[in-house]
């Protein structure tokens, strides 16, 4: 037998991806460093389709039709390089290695360049949707050459999630590292979405005085409106879950220390390198970090806070509506920031990413899938060179309608001492963009004062310096 595709790395993701290919009628060659995993897959799921289990790299490569398509689903980082080192010498020009792991896009660029010299197509493909998505249809963000996509595209389209209109959630994102960059940003936006939801939850709990079960109902209602999304849906599920051992809301027995694997942090690091303000995403990453500093939090418990004011029932319901407005407005801003980062990455690395298409392939399969993404696609279709999502008229109008509540909620949070870093950061970003004048003028003055860093003027061209230590005359610089 010859297999149309092979998967090496058969942990949860690789196994489910292999099953997904097989269930879609492809013959799938299987390989894993530890052969037991390969055997287990065939034992448990062998009847789902045509699998060709192999034990050695040589056997694996030999099982594949040419040009070969090898999907690598191993632990990101050194293991990916180890696998490439093992397989590349066995491949021929025209063959494709698809890295479906969560690689850093810079690693993908390096690997792509190195393999291109050997005539091998290296496709860094972001895959989102977790275990379940890998099996039933993920959102797939492949980078790499046009040529490789011509060969892979139809297969990926088959196994990918389908949006509500039936469109497969996959597109050729762009050359080399573009796919992994977009996946990274997807995860950064996911961090922000989750943090904003968390802040909304905390406000409903601490200010509105709602129980976890009541808040689950609020989220269920929100999920029927413009916030309709996978994350809101599962939030309601998590909040309504009751811990069996204690009878308490599940959310009350879970340790409040969020963990992270790195893609959110990368999104912020790369944004800093590219000079893109992603304050909402950054606050989301920092919020996880704060939550994990147990000693610091323990030592800070005595710090003074305001006296909280409990709301009456009617007030609480009105407040919950305001929180929905705030959540929606902050969400628009954090997507604006994430899409700005992709635009900047695309410009920096000549990827020519179609941002509307990216939004379209996130409509299904991935963690941030949401009705909202359709709107982003339409905004970019109407204006492909949209400088910012906030430049889109309909988003601007929605924020205009939400802003009074948005501001109220953040003011209330500050007054009541509920931390809302992502809500606040996204509002500050919005107000910064709106501002006629920013204090940056003063910053420039300070920089010129202490470091002769010079400044430009509003009223004429040129670069100037004031002789601060002398008679304060202005000189051309
Ligand atoms: P893991 O990240 O836990 O990786 C385990 C797999 O990597 C095993 O098959 C293991 O082989 C193999 N492996 C580790 N080191 C080496 C090595 N040096 N040489 C060869 N193989 C090695 O598996 P997951 O399925 O969770 O994830 C796979 C990839 O998908 C990762 O890059 C992850 O970031 C990404 N991803 C994961 C998602 C998820 O929800 N889990 C979602 C989206 C992407 P062995 O069995 O021999 O130990």
From TrEMBL:
Pathway: Carbohydrate degradation; pentose phosphate pathway; D-ribulose 5-phosphate from D-glucose 6-phosphate (oxidative stage): step 3/3. Pfam families: 6PGD, NAD_binding_2. Its EC number is 1.1.1.44. It catalyses: 6-phospho-D-gluconate + NADP(+) = D-ribulose 5-phosphate + CO2 + NADPH. Residues 179-469 form the 6-phosphogluconate dehydrogenase C-terminal domain. It is an enzyme of class 1 (oxidoreductase). Keywords: Gluconate utilization, NADP, Oxidoreductase, Pentose shunt. Belongs to the 6-phosphogluconate dehydrogenase family. Homodimer. Catalyzes the oxidative decarboxylation of 6-phosphogluconate to ribulose 5-phosphate and CO(2), with concomitant reduction of NADP to NADPH. This is 6-phosphogluconate dehydrogenase, decarboxylating. It comes from Streptomyces olivaceiscleroticus. The lineage of its organism: Bacteria, Bacillati, Actinomycetota, Actinomycetes, Kitasatosporales. The gene is gndA.
């Amino acid at each position: 037998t010859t297999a149309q595709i092979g998967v090496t790395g058969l942990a949860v993701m690789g196994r489910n991806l292999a099953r997904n290919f097989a269930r879609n009628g492809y013959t799938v060659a299987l390989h894993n460093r530890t052969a037991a995993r390969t055997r287990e897959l065939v034992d448990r799921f062998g009847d789902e389709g045509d699998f060709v289990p192999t034990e050695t790299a040589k056997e694996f490569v030999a099982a594949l039709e040419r040009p070969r398509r090898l999907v690598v689903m191993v632990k990101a980082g050194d293991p990916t390089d180890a696998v490439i080192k093992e397989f590349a010498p066995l491949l021929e020009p025209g063959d494709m290695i698809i890295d479906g792991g969560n690689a850093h896009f810079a690693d993908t660029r390096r690997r792509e360049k190195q393999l291109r010299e050997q005539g091998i197509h290296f496709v860094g493909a972001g895959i989102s949707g977790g275990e379940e998505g890998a099996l039933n249809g993920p959102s797939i963000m492949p980078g790499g050459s046009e040529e490789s996509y011509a060969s892979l595209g139809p297969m990926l389209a088959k196994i990918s999630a389908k949006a509500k209109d039936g469109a497969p959630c996959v597109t050729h994102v762009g050359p080399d590292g573009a796919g992994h960059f977009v996946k990274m940003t997807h995860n950064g936006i996911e961090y922000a979405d989750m943090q904003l939801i968390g802040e909304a939850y905390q406000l409903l709990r601490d200010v509105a005085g709602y129980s976890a079960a009541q808040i689950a109902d609020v989220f269920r209602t929100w999920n029927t409106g413009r916030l309709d999304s996978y994350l809101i849906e599962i939030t309601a599920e998590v909040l309504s879950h009751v811990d069996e051992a204690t009878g308490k809301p599940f959310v009350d027995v879970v340790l409040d220390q969020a963990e992270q694997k790195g893609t959110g942090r990368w999104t912020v690091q790369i944004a800093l390198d590219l000079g893109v303000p992603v304050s909402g995403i950054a606050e989301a990453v920092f919020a996880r970090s704060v939550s994990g500093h147990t000693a610091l939090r323990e030592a800070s418990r005595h710090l003074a806070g305001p006296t909280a004011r409990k709301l009456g029932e009617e007030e609480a319901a009105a407040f919950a509506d305001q929180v929905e407005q705030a959540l929606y407005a902050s969400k628009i801003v954090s997507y604006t920031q994430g899409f700005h980062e992709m635009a900047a990455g695309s410009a920096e690395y000549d990827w020519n990413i179609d941002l509307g298409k990216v939004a379209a392939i996130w409509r299904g399969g991935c963690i941030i899938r949401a009705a909202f993404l359709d709107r982003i696609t339409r905004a970019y279709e109407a204006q492909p060179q949209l400088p910012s999502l906030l430049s889109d008229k309909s988003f601007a109008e929605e924020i205009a309608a939400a802003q009074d509540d948005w501001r109220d909620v953040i003011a209330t949070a500050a007054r009541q001492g509920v931390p809302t870093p992502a809500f606040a950061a996204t509002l500050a970003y919005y107000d910064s963009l709106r501002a006629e004048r920013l204090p940056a003028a003063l910053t420039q003055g300070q920089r010129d004062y202490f470091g002769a860093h010079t400044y430009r003027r509003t009223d004429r061209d040129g670069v100037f310096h004031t002789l601060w230590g002398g008679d304060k005359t202005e000189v051309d610089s």
